[in-house]
Protein: Glycosyl hydrolases family 43
Amino acid sequence: MNNQCLNPYLPSYEYIPDGEPYVFGERLYVFGSHDRFNGKLFFMNDYVCWSASIHNLSDWRYEGVIYRKNQDPMNKSGLWQMYAPDVAKGADGRYYLYYTLAFRSVMAVAVCDTPAGKYEFYGYVSRPDGSIFWNKSGDPILFDPAVLVDVDGSVYLYSGFAPRRGVPFFLTGWKKRTCKGGYVIELEPDMKTVISEPKLLFHKAGQAEGTGFEGHEFFEASSIRKINHTYYFIYSSINGHELCYATSKSPTSGFVYGGTIVSNGDLYINGHSTDQTAYNYIGNNHGSIVEVNNRWYVFHHRQTNRHHYSRQGLAEPLEIKADGSIPQVEMTSCGLNNGPLHGKGEYEARIACHLRSAKGAGRYGVYFGNIFYRKHPYFTQCGKDREAAPSQYIANMRDEAVAGYKYFMINNLSEIAVCVRGSASGWMFLSASMDSKPFGKIQINPSKQFTYYHTKVNMENGKQALYFTYKGTGKLDFQSFVLS
Structure:
């Protein structure tokens, strides 16, 4: 298989959503939640870390487990999940890991001398008298931390959770909390003692009239970056599938809505806005931006297995214009490659940036995905959750299902092959866009084993997308394709 900076950027057996990317020294580190393959809940695994040299973003290194669930004194049994974390380097040179335990609304902190070493429990965000902060009835919900250590040493913690219809019925531990939007809290240099009372910065849907955030109000997934003299707040909007941003010259006030950075269904940028018109199956999104060797990237995630509980990290280059604005980026298979993929070689089908059924795509929920989407294609893998032996593929492609890939640098391509299995009997049509006229087709026959089928093609040279549309009876699993 081709060893390039593909999307998803980590091995296919790894499920790291909510990515917070940081450059420390000569390496790019990604901290995130840790889902389980085909898990039944969010964040079922311990925190791990992956890193890559800033000079080679295709060579990711597994740093191992950096913090276990049962290290938290409130979670000795390890039954509670750790939600999306953030990491910041303190003034003392140590690294601080922030997270919340599921439904607790308590912000915990762990510390380590190195970015990806073994973190040790440090304490809970607390008031000067030592009492745990935001742990009383009526307090806002602490959720999805974002931490900034400013150049003057000031420390800011951002957090919040604001669903459109209030706290979901199953989050009984949060029933006595308020959820009005996104907040900022200033901390002492010790990284855990509260200086200021929480300040509401971002209003929830239904309470944001006149703010400029209408239609893209704050939901969750706080993240903060400072670029030159401007603060960029990145968050998941009430629409769920998109990461948006807001900017200010102050870390504690005056944020102005900027726009959508990325949608995990390419909505808006594809000219559509409804779930079914997404170019990929959508769900919650969480991530942030990072600069590596004078190039900016956005990290976010996609859903697999027809539900929310097995999410994988994605990354795309982005542009920050001279006026500070960020145009929405499209989803691609290229990821961190900074250009089209080679137009020769074998590629795993799992790197599809677009995936749809005959009836379009849709929004995965936390339950019943296998029922509602049983006739839809989806990303999955063989075996159980693990840290080795990648085997991901696209399952359940039926009549008029589409898998799309962007982009390849085509040069005298003469043949395309697909590796599939299943009860399918029909044709795989090849085209250069979702709706363009096919330039070739491959006959598919039923097979219990993954089998290669091929055809001669005459594809135009240059930067091209490639779409595979199956038409026929039965269903197939799509493992890979070969350009030769």
About this structure: The domain at 20-331 is CATH 2.115.10.20 (Tachylectin-2; Chain A).
